[in-house]
UniProtKB/TrEMBL annotation:
InterPro entries: NAD(P)-bd_dom_sf (IPR036291), NmrA-like (IPR008030), NmrA/Isoflavone_reductase-like (IPR051609), PCBER-like (IPR045312). SUPFAM superfamilies: NAD(P)-binding Rossmann-fold domains. It comes from Aspergillus ellipticus CBS 707.79. This is NAD(P)-binding protein. GO terms for molecular function: oxidoreductase activity. Residues 7-204 form the NmrA-like domain. Keywords: NADP, Oxidoreductase. It holds the Pfam family NmrA.
Length: 306
């Protein structure tokens, strides 16, 4: 079966994830356009179309999206106020599929959706469901919900091992299994959804959960130690409950840096489904592989050596 080629616009195409999605889709033969703010000074890689718009101007967005089959948002920290205009422009421009910026967020747990870091993504999801429920409507949505970004987690030491500091931190013992995803696998998942009409339709108006591997902080620390030769010594033990209590106080005082701590609650907290990721997994349906132990180890080495 020949692959379907689509016209795709990407918001956030110069970011770490957005640029990976753009290059993967372009390599697959899709026509990719980077949609940027008018005041953006970030350069788009050669070979990509680009259009600059005022994100608050619906008419400009409609003009940019006209003729596009898919609009993908890879913008960090999406807000309903800004995403709502983009969604309305997609509907007005008859875009077939809008993909919101959910990614590392578990939104199928009634506990997880109440976390501060999920608030705006939940509002966007609710708005999508409210305006795109008409079965005769042309525009549909699909979110990609992946495990923690492995590329970033390894470099910044947030999933156990911290190679730069040469220390490790275990949350609630370090033995809870969670899903992790590489940026390249996230981009590949999107390409897989777009490549065939059957997959494209199957993913309409629902989240698609994917991951590259399932790991624990203890296992990942052992693997990084083997790859780098670093002796991490005795890991620091952190209670997620105590971490969240301290983070809540910081948020009350206006310290937004505490927001990231809630990812640990989403990943490791009881009832937050961080360890139940496979319940929703689409890897097999999309033809995505799970990394073997050796593949994961090779990927860890590649990430840390770049």
């Amino acid at each position: 079966m020949a692959a379907v080629l689509r016209t795709v616009s990407i918001i956030g195409a110069t970011g770490a994830l957005g640029s990976r999605i753009a290059s993967t889709l372009k390599a697959a033969g899709h026509t990719v356009t980077a949609v940027q703010r008018k005041d953006s000074s970030k350069s788009v890689p050669e070979g990509f179309k680009t259009v600059k718009v005022n994100y608050q101007n619906k008419e400009e967005l409609v003009s940019a999206f006209t003729g596009q089959e898919v609009v993908i948002s890879a913008a960090p920290f999406p807000q309903l106020d800004s995403e709502k205009i983009i969604i309305e422009a997609c509907i007005a421009a008859s875009v077939k599929r809008f993909m919101p910026s959910e990614y590392t967020t578990m939104l199928e747990s009634p506990l997880a959706i109440n976390l501060p870091l999920a608030t705006e993504k939940v509002r966007v999801r609710q708005y999508l469901n409210s305006v795109l429920t008409n079965p005769t409507g042309l525009t549909t949505w699909t979110s990609i919900n992946n495990g923690a970004f492995l590329d970033m987690a390894l470099k910044f030491g947030v999933l156990g091992p911290n190679p730069m500091a040469k220390k490790a931190v275990f949350h609630d013992g370090g033995d809870k299994t969670i899903a992790v995803s590489t940026l390249s696998d996230i981009a590949t998942a999107i390409a897989k959804i777009l490549e065939q009409d059957s997959k494209f339709e199957a993913a309409a108006n629902q989240p698609v959960y994917i991951c590259s591997a399932a790991v624990t902080e203890r296992r990942l620390t052992k693997m990084v130690a083997e790859v780098t030769g670093i002796d991490f010594g005795t890991p620091e033990e952190v209670s997620v409950k105590e971490l969240i209590a301290a983070s809540a106080e910081k948020l009350k005082q206006g310290d937004k840096s505490a927001m990231v701590s809630y990812y640990f609650q989403m990943m490791y907290g009881e009832g937050y489904k961080g360890g139940d990721f496979m319940e929703f997994n689409w890897n097999e349906r999309l033809g995505l592989r799970f990394m073997s132990e050796q593949e994961l180890k090779d990927t860890v080495a590649q990430i840390l050596n770049n």
